[in-house]
Write a structure and sequence with these properties.
179 residues, alpha+beta, 50s Ribosomal Protein L5, Chain: A
Length: 179
């Protein structure tokens, strides 16, 4: 049976460290990663709808699963956006795909970021962190010829941690370079 490498590291080492560090009695209360969400905002898609399809293919290559189109909830005249127009893409990863993506993101994509110093620890108070990426070209699946324009994306890592301290401990031991 296949188990992703990062998940095996979590099960064998990191969960035990969390139990010792936070003196957790119940094994179900150990902090773990529940999901990873990827999203792209494509404001220019209001004028040229072909941008959505090109970037949807890119997001699907990066995540390994189908991306869904997000639509505008309200009309905003200053941005020339009408209600229901496609303005972004999103996908949520869970289970094996999540662990595979995290391994690839931590060990392959982040080291390819130019002048990378680490990720600033901006948690939301509930143990979740959102990481903004300026260039989607850092992922090895994308070919430079296939991209019309270098775009950014947000990667949200959702954990079951009770607070930011537990989440930071978990992510640091998984290998996420948090400052």
């Amino acid at each position: 049976m296949y188990h992703p490498r990062l998940q095996m590291i979590y099960i064998k080492k990191i969960s035990k460290k969390c139990i010792q560090k936070f003196s957790i009695n119940n094994s179900m209360a150990v902090p773990k990663i529940t999901s990873v969400s990827l999203s792209m905002g494509l404001g220019e898609a209001a004028n040229t709808p072909s941008i959505i399809e090109k970037n949807k293919k890119c997001l699907e290559l990066i995540s390994g699963q189908r991306a869904s189109i997000t639509r505008a909830k309200k009309s905003i005249s200053s941005f020339k956006i009408r209600q229901g127009m496609p303005i972004g893409l999103k996908t949520t990863l869970r289970k094996d795909q999540m662990w595979d993506f995290l391994y690839k993101f931590i060990n392959i994509a982040l080291p390819r970021v130019r002048d990378f110093q680490g990720i600033f620890s901006r948690f939301d108070g509930c143990g979740n962190i959102t990481i903004g990426i300026k260039d989607n070209i850092i992922f090895p699946e994308l070919d430079y010829k296939d991209i019309d324009k270098i775009r950014g994306m947000n990667i949200t890592i959702n954990t079951s941690a009770l607070n930011d301290m537990q989440a930071k401990f978990l992510l640091r031991h998984l290998g996420v370079p948090i400052i």
